[in-house]
Write a structure and sequence with these properties.
This protein is mainly alpha-helical. It is built from two helices and three strands. Strands 1-2-3 form a three-stranded antiparallel sheet, with helices on one face.
Length: 107
């Protein structure tokens, strides 16, 4: 399955993350209760960080695709011309797995 995500750019709003066409996701505001100010503060900070991460997802996805292609090219050239691997194969596999997960191709 190759699911196409909503193209970027995405940006954070008070209620969540959106693009030019509308809401991408809604993030629930934490509830404030007496005596739980520390929890409320932590959840507010976490919600803001989550919105930033979600909004950056399309950019990170494209950047990772480019980095993976470049790293695979460097690996192939090094193997062909020098005879040794100069790229961490585990890092490449992690990048491939993350892209597959994001595109819906992982199992």
């Amino acid at each position: 399955m190759n699911t196409q995500h909503t193209p970027g750019p995405w940006w954070e709003t008070e209620s969540g993350v959106r693009d030019r066409g509308g809401l991408i996701c809604h993030t629930i505001s934490p509830q404030r209760y007496p005596g739980q100010e520390d929890r409320f503060e932590r959840e507010t900070i976490e919600r803001t960080a989550n919105k930033k991460l979600i909004a950056a997802a399309p950019d990170m996805y494209e950047a990772l695709k480019k980095l993976l292609a470049d790293a695979e090219h460097v690996r192939d050239v090094a193997l062909r011309e020098v005879g040794i691997g100069m790229v961490n194969e585990l890092a490449l596999e992690s990048a491939r797995a993350a892209l597959a997960k994001a595109s819906g191709e992982s199992k």
